[in-house]
């Protein structure tokens, strides 16, 4: 019998998150569970009940936070308004702080890194998030970096939404080796061909999107004027 | 008031599907719903109840098949053994046939195209699927093509798992224009950087995986020897 304790990769779920932030890295890590003995993947929520996402699909976690208090890896997905609102959710932040505390690696996708920041976990670290909110990282004592994913010690933060897939492959390489990460890439056929090519960043009109991103932040934190002021002043 | 009827993009859900096959294109199409008036996205299942996926996450459809009998676009995700098993699920195949019948576009991800094939919808068409099962398409009268996605008339079939994101962006471009597709790509930050580069297809040892893919097929269709024989003889 295998005596090695299971190394648990845990994904945190909360209402309104962006589905692909969760599903991309979860698919990658579930494949690891199937290929490599000793790993298991779980999805943690307050309760094992349906949770809304930012799509018409609701999702059901596999376990509660209480059931898996000390994961080997923690991954925190992001989202738009509901995630920004969760920056003031002390219960969720305490959950993340506790789960991250003993974790070997902590990953985030998109604005999930803002939750890590609000939980006080990114102080003095290099990190990234969705391009709309990259500058906000400074308000949590982090140094924003415009990369697909950023590694700083045991923290691996990814850029927006789809970047979670790249981050998760890197995360698998760190905990189980590059060969397994490459095999998973092959099995999920991750050989991207965006129909209109890569994003042309120099051509992106960031000013055009700023009112929308600031409006989402203001609306999400309308009941928390002090936090909003701290993030926008 | 807007008088144009809503154009509904419907995703089909069934037990055991691959989460990312669903979540990738669903994220893309949900963004379209938010950006362009006149579109709505739904997820269809037999019942509005939790459905298992090939990850620890269960998902809850937004509607039943009966509630949305004539979608504008139908998208069918794939999976491994449960999807192969569903090749013999006449009730599901009838659902897909009916929903596809009046659809403007029909998309599939991964082995979702095998379901379309089993439903008799790909005869005489060029199509693709997960690389493990590409040759199976011939058994449904289709011509397999090794591309990220394949368009043949109103059918758009994607390669394995993650290819659904690329396919969905192309699908959005077809129904709503390239500009919106590019905007969605920017919002979900789909600017992939696989950590170990693209898949090196010439170096892939397909023979190594064949026993596994054939075993999955044999196990999935153990109760349907005639169909299994038709697919493997």
TrEMBL record, chains A, B:
Listed GO biological process terms: regulation of DNA-templated transcription
CDD domains assigned to the protein according to its UniProt record, in alphabetical order: GATase1_PfpI_2 (cd03139)
InterPro entries named among the record's database cross-references: Class_I_gatase-like, DJ-1/PfpI, INH-QAR
Domain DJ-1/PfpI: 8-173
SUPFAM superfamilies: Class I glutamine amidotransferase-like
UniProt superkingdom: Bacteria
Name of the molecule in the record: DJ-1/PfpI family protein
